[in-house]
């Protein structure tokens, strides 16, 4: 049986509900929140067709090598090893979501996707809802930011599904500055959905993508990543949005070639985690500080714990009140 490293377990399952009243009264845009990147890739369907988000050369590779190519892609697609419930128990509260229909499949079913097709979206949403039912003071950000092979009917289906599953837990789109944990608890809201597509316009419980910018460094080099994170934090808007710092290295074609044998985890992430975690450890939340921080392989370190503990700095700061 595989053992989990330190930092994984359910001791962060109620971290939001356990925050001191000074912090639960602060806008959530000033609180440090751990997130996971390409969430829902902990299970990938090797026998499904290659996902629509892959470039032409990978599709060509998959056609030529079939099962072998898919196994290679599984290594590069599995950026999270923990299930949804495990990520939530570990304290992850922001999920980066990419969804797709399966081309050629009848019906309107939607799947989570990163390279290959994963779980049905409905199953993942039900798993989240089940957790929230047991942890009434926890709040999640669901960021639906990439859609593939989806037409108007698919979007209607997905938006209706989100409303069916979460119901009155869905927070209405409003001024970001007014969103505090105290406000959400009072209204019994636990889910903030960001829907980066015009289909969601005019639906009160669907927040626009513009309210959660997540600048992407698109680099394999940790030093360039850190420089990018610093620059984009300095440029963070004063009003009107949350902010995602993507502490993530992106595989390139030649990186995939070099790392075929080991996969993303060993080749790109484990070697560079110390640099990335060291950056996270010295951040501060609050005005002009970090908000949501995402990482690959949240189980390799105490990642969620490190991010959550950053909030302790807000208790000792005299200037922690938002300007």
TrEMBL record:
<dbReference type="InterPro" id="IPR017946">
    <property type="entry name" value="PLC-like_Pdiesterase_TIM-brl"/>
</dbReference>
<keyword id="KW-0378">Hydrolase</keyword>
<protein>
    <submittedName>
        <fullName>Phosphatidylinositol specific phospholipase C X domain containing 2</fullName>
    </submittedName>
</protein>
<dbReference type="GO" id="GO:0008081">
    <property type="term" value="F:phosphoric diester hydrolase activity"/>
</dbReference>
<dbReference type="InterPro" id="IPR051057">
    <property type="entry name" value="PI-PLC_domain"/>
</dbReference>
<keyword id="KW-0443">Lipid metabolism</keyword>
<dbReference type="InterPro" id="IPR042158">
    <property type="entry name" value="PLCXD1/2/3"/>
</dbReference>
<dbReference type="InterPro" id="IPR000909">
    <property type="entry name" value="PLipase_C_PInositol-sp_X_dom"/>
</dbReference>
<dbReference type="GO" id="GO:0016042">
    <property type="term" value="P:lipid catabolic process"/>
</dbReference>
<keyword id="KW-0442">Lipid degradation</keyword>
<feature type="domain" description="Phosphatidylinositol-specific phospholipase C X">
    <location>
        <begin position="27"/>
        <end position="196"/>
    </location>
</feature>
<keyword id="KW-0807">Transducer</keyword>
<dbReference type="GO" id="GO:0007165">
    <property type="term" value="P:signal transduction"/>
</dbReference>
């Amino acid at each position: 049986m595989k053992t989990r490293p330190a930092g994984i377990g359910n001791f962060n399952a109620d971290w939001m509900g356990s925050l001191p009243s000074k912090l639960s009264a602060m806008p959530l845009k000033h609180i440090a929140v751990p997130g996971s990147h390409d969430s829902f890739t902990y299970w990938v369907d090797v026998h499904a067709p290659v996902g629509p988000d892959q470039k032409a050369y990978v599709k060509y590779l998959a056609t030529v090598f079939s099962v072998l190519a898919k196994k290679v892609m599984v290594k590069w697609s599995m950026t999270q090893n923990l299930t949804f419930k495990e990520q939530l128990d570990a304290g992850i509260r922001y999920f980066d979501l990419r969804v797709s229909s399966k081309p050629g499949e009848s019906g309107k079913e939607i799947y989570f996707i990163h390279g290959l097709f994963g779980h049905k979206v409905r199953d993942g949403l039900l798993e989240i809802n089940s957790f929230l039912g047991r942890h009434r003071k926890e709040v999640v950000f669901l960021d639906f930011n990439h859609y593939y092979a989806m037409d108007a009917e698919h979007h209607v289906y997905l938006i209706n599904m989100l409303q069916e599953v979460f119901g009155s837990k869905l927070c209405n789109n409003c001024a970001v500055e007014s969103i505090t944990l105290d406000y959400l608890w009072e209204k019994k809201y636990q889910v903030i959905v960001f829907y980066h597509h015009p289909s969601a316009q005019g639906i009160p419980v669907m927040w626009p993508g513009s309210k959660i910018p997540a600048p992407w460094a698109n680099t394999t080099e940790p030093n360039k990543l850190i420089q990018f994170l610093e620059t984009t934090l300095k440029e963070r808007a004063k009003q009107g949005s949350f902010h995602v710092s993507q502490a993530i290295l992106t595989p390139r074609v030649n990186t995939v070639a070099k790392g075929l044998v080991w996969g993303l985890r060993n080749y790109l992430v484990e070697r560079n985690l110390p640099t990335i975690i060291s950056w996270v450890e010295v951040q501060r939340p609050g005005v002009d500080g970090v908000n949501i921080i995402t990482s690959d392989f949240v189980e390799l370190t105490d990642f969620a714990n490190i991010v959550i503990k950053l909030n302790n700095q807000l208790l000792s700061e005299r200037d922690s009140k938002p300007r």
